[in-house]
């Protein structure tokens, strides 16, 4: 396919109107001197004020959606990228990156607090909270601002800042302009979900957006929620000296393997106040103090006061106010966009990736989907998406990480398995670290000995899990794990010991 140059204003007005009338005109040109014969040439974009601008692809959302922007533009296609907030999406501006930058300070504080275990006398750490949060925000804002000039420099990329709405299956509207394409990608992500709690809408509570930019260190923080966002952010505040209370309907990290969950609960409850099996009743705010009323696990009514409240019960997809009612796109009962195995929605030519689809809610999963879609749409790859084993990690103390199935799922599905288990404290490095918590748990298929799942809780779990992600990607079996030579006495020996434990059960 050969592209004609961008249609600029020097084209006669009448001709431009004609182009616009038909949005996209495909010419058959003869490739002079070439051996390819006839090739089709497309007008990439028509820039007529107040009229429709046509693009080869329109991408809505600059998080994982950016995976398609530069690679597609590099191939000579015209790309429109639309973003209503800061460039970079949740991960950069209010998710993975700022949270981990802040949590690193919490980890250092924890190490200092634990130093006495190693006969080191260090006073308790004092945090310059305002300076810490300001440093992190400054860095991520700089990173976000660095994206714009890159896009502006590229003549194939047009950046629109504004809230987009669909008008039809092929047209959207942003800032009063109408854009069209036969390929539109919805990558609008998700935002903080808010519970239906009496009084909540009248009080100045924080969601993760505010909690990551809050420069005032509270004395006492109430956290509603027990998933990874709640535990990570609560850990950040708690480790830096804020009295932190978690309020959870059932349990902490309820999606984790049950043994991991129990170990996490044991460790976390020693550091922070965890109120489980509670029912929230009402919240109010007066003179800077929140009062949370709740029923405890014995059904007795309780109240707790604090100077900060974080609501972190999870996320809800950004699919409202997108004008999807003007398209054939359909949503599931929770509001996530329905897609087929090629990430195409029920509307031909409209695709969706990432949190708004809700298959996985990670930056690494939306990256994978975005890269797949780029190959599908612009590299003529035609297979359905084939997800690799999807790992996850929780950056708390202790850390949690996993890949593949949990033991609970294996039991539910009656899949025969063998479990290998090793505590951190039963390894040489675990002895050096004086690990009080932590283990690795490996799950193998009973007959094939293939690795089906791996779950780690403890120091460096988010790093340790990578060897098991690699093994699962390679469809490895127990022998593969035992065949390799491990560095003695590095922490991955915990994984090897768990594999040896599984091996014993086969013999
Ligand atoms: C506190 C926190 C910590 C996290 N930590 C991790 C982590 O450690 N690791 C990990 O993998 N994941 C983490 N996540 C999850 C991760 O950030 C998301 O899964 C990921 O960013 C989703 O990417 P996305 O492209 O689907 O959506 P987003 O990154 O949210 O991008 C969607 C974009 O679309 C824009 N948009 C929405 N509607 C419109 C509209 N109508 N018009 C124009 N623009 C629109 C939004 O402004 C947004 O910028 C974390 C999330 C949070 C909240």
Please provide a written account of the structure.
- The protein is an alpha/beta fold and 507 residues long.
- The protein folds into four domains: 10-44, no CATH class; 54-192 and 317-378, FAD/NAD(P)-binding domain (3-Layer(bba) Sandwich); 200-313, FAD/NAD(P)-binding domain; 398-504, Enolase-like, domain 1 (2-Layer Sandwich), CATH 3.30.390.30.
- It is built from 15 helices and 26 strands.
- The strands form seven sheets. It has a five-stranded parallel sheet with strand order 7-6-5-11-21. The chain has a five-stranded antiparallel sheet with strand order 22-23-26-25-24, with helices on both faces. A four-stranded mixed sheet has the order 4-10-9-8, with no helix packed on it.
- A hairpin with a 5-residue loop joins strand 22 and strand 23.
- The termini are far apart.
- The model is unreliable at 1-49 (pLDDT under 50).
- The site of flavin-adenine dinucleotide has 32 residues, from strand 6, helix 3, helix 4 and helix 10.
- Residues 60-65, 82-85, 89-91, 95-96, 99, 163-164, 187-189, 208, 229, 318, 322, 354-355, 361-364, 366 line the site of flavin-adenine dinucleotide.
As an assembly, this protein is single chain
Q: How many whole angstroms does the radius of gyration measure? A: 26 Å
For the record, the CATH architecture of the largest domain stands as 3-Layer(bba) Sandwich
Low-confidence stretches: 1-49
Task: Count the beta strands.
Answer: 26
Instruction: Enumerate the distinct ligands.
Output: flavin-adenine dinucleotide
CATH superfamily of the largest domain: FAD/NAD(P)-binding domain
- Largest sheet entry: 5 strands, parallel
CATH class of the largest domain: Alpha Beta
What is the beta-strand fraction? 15-25%
Number of helical regions: 15
CATH topology of the largest domain: FAD/NAD(P)-binding domain
């Amino acid at each position: 396919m050969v592209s004609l140059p961008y249609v600029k204003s020097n084209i006669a007005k009448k001709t431009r109107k004609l182009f616009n009338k038909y949005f996209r005109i495909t010419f058959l040109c003869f490739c002079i001197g070439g051996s390819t014969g006839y090739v089709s040439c497309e007008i990439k974009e028509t820039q007529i004020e107040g009229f429709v601008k046509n693009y080869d692809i329109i991408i809505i959302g600059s998080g994982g959606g950016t995976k398609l922007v530069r690679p597609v533009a590099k191939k000579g296609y015209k790309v429109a990228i639309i973003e209503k907030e800061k460039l970079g999406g949740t991960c950069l501006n209010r998710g993975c990156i700022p949270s981990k930058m802040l949590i690193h300070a919490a980890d250092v504080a924890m190490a200092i607090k634990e130093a006495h275990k190693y006969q080191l006398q260090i006073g308790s750490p004092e945090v310059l909270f305002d300076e810490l949060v300001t440093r992190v925000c400054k860095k991520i804002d700089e990173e976000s601002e660095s994206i714009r000039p890159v896009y502006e420099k590229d003549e194939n990329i047009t950046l629109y800042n504004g809230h987009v709405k669909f008008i039809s299956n092929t047209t959207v509207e942003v800032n009063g302009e109408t854009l069209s394409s036969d390929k539109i990608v919805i990558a609008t992500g998700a935002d903080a979900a808010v519970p239906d709690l009496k009084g909540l809408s009248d009080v100045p509570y924080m969601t993760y957006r505010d909690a990551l930019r809050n420069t005032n260190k509270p004395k006492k923080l109430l956290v509603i929620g027990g998933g990874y966002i709640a535990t990570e952010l609560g850990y950040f505040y708690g480790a830096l000296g804020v009295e932190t209370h978690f309020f959870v309907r059932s349990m902490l990290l309820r999606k984790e393997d049950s043994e991991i969950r129990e170990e996490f609960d044991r460790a976390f409850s020693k550091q922070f106040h965890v109120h489980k099996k509670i029912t929230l009743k009402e919240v109010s705010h007066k003179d800077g103090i929140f009062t949370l009323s709740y029923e405890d696990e014995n059904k007795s009514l309780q109240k707790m006061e604090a100077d900060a409240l974080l609501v972190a019960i999870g996320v809800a997809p950004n699919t409202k106010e997108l004008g999807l009612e003007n398209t054939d796109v359909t949503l599931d009962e929770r509001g996530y966009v329905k897609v087929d195995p090629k990430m195409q929605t029920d509307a031909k030519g409209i695709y969706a990736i990432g949190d708004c689809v809700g298959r996985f809610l990670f930056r690494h999963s939306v990256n994978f989907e975005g890269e797949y879609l780029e190959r599908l749409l612009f590299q003529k790859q035609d297979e359905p998406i084939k997800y690799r084993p999807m790992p996850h990690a929780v950056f708390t103390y202790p850390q949690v990480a996993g890949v593949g199935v949990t033991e609970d799922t294996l039991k539910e599905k009656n899949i025969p398995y063998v479990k290998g288990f090793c505590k951190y404290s039963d390894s040489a490095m675990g002895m050096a670290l004086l690990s009080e918590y932590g283990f690795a748990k490996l799950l193998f298929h009973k007959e094939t000995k293939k690795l089906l799942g791996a779950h780690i809780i403890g120091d460096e779990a988010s790093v340790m899990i990578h060897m098991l992600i690699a093994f699962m990607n390679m469809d490895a079996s127990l022998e593969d794990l035992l065949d390799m030579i491990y560095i003695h006495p590095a922490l991955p020996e915990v994984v090897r010991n768990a594999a040896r434990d599984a091996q014993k059960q086969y013999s």
